[in-house]
């Protein structure tokens, strides 16, 4: 049975959809994360996580590991919305990659060598 619409279907595939705070040394922002990026971040599908929901340590571990990972958000959709007479930016993650420390260092070397 579907938790959302209460319909009955022969099978279903659950999808991730959640908000998260992302940030660096300069600022932080709330972003929307959908299924493909959430699977990349958490390392499991929503169905696999639900199967471990009763085993709270394993389930919480998926999110705990995501807290310490570093990502490069390369492409985000940004939309300006007006809510209750105020403006806010709605940001949705479209693409993200784990930080490649070797390539990041290569990009910084010319700037460091110029000093």
From TrEMBL:
Keyword annotations from UniProtKB, A to Z: DNA-binding, Metal-binding, Zinc
CDD domains (UniProt xref): RPA1_DBD_C (cd04476)
GO MF terms held by the record: DNA binding; metal ion binding
Pfam families named in the record: Rep_fac-A_C
Sequence ranges assigned to domain Replication factor A C-terminal in this UniProt record: 2-107
Domain of life: Eukaryota
Name recorded for this polypeptide: Replication factor A
Organism: Nitzschia inconspicua
């Amino acid at each position: 049975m579907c938790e959302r619409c209460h319909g009955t279907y022969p099978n279903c595939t659950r999808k991730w959809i959640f908000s998260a705070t992302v940030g660096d040394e300069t600022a932080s922002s709330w972003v929307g994360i959908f299924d493909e990026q959430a699977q990349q971040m958490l390392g499991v599908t929503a169905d696999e996580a639900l199967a471990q929901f009763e085993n709270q340590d394993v389930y919480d571990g998926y999110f705990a590991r995501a807290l310490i990972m570093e990502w490069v958000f390369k492409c985000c959709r940004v939309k300006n919305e007006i809510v209750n007479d105020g403006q806010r930016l709605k940001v949705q993650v479209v693409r993200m990659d784990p930080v490649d420390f070797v390539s990041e260092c290569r990009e910084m070397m010319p700037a460091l060598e110029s000093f």
